[in-house]
Amino acid sequence: MLEYLLLKRVSICKLMLLALMWLQSDEDSQNQLTYDYSSPLRVENLTWLGETSVGEEVEHFCDVSNTTRIGVWGEILELKLVDLIADFPTCLHDASWFALLAITMMLVDKELDLRCTHK
């Protein structure tokens, strides 16, 4: 059980690092950023897109800046690492968790296609 918890926590930390790398990569491609800049997540999974009514570019929480988003991710990391609660306190936390998973799946898909965000 202890080994499982350790692997779970390492995986969660990797998830956060991948999301931060994606965010940094997106921001590096911008010329000038405002204080409330929000990174859109470009979805390339055509199967998923076919089952939804969204366009190719999904701006999850487009009214939430990257700074705020990183703060929520930090709270999620703390909650997941100490396993204090099963459910997140707000829908923003829930949706941010699924956004983190989507970012990771997108980055893994790109790496499998030999298109690395950070080589």
Q: Determine the fraction of residues in helical runs and give it as a percent range.
A: 55-70%
What is the residue-mean pLDDT, rounded to a whole number? 79
> Within the largest sheet, what's the order of strands?
1-2
- Outline type: globular
| SSE topology string | HEHEHH
The description of the largest β-sheet is: 2 strands, antiparallel
The count of DSSP E runs of length 2 or more, i.e. the number of strands, is 2
Helix vs. strand class: mainly alpha
User: Which residues sit in consecutive blocks of at least 5 with pLDDT less than 50?
Assistant: none
- Radius of gyration, rounded? 15 Å
Strand content: under 5%
Keywords:
mainly alpha; 4 helices; globular; 119 residues
Description of the molecule:
The chain is mainly α. The chain is built from 4 helices and 2 strands; from the N terminus they run H-E-H-E-H-H. The chain has a two-stranded antiparallel sheet with strand order 1-2. The radius of gyration is 15 Å and the shape is globular. The model has no long low-confidence stretch (mean pLDDT 79).
Question: In terms of topology, how is this protein built?
Answer:
Blueprint: H1 2-28, E1 41-42, H2 46-50, E2 57-58, H3 66-82, H4 91-112
Antiparallel strand pairs: 1-2
Helix pairs in contact: 1-3, 1-4, 3-4
Task: Write a concise synopsis of the structure shown.
The mean pLDDT is 79. The protein is mainly alpha-helical.
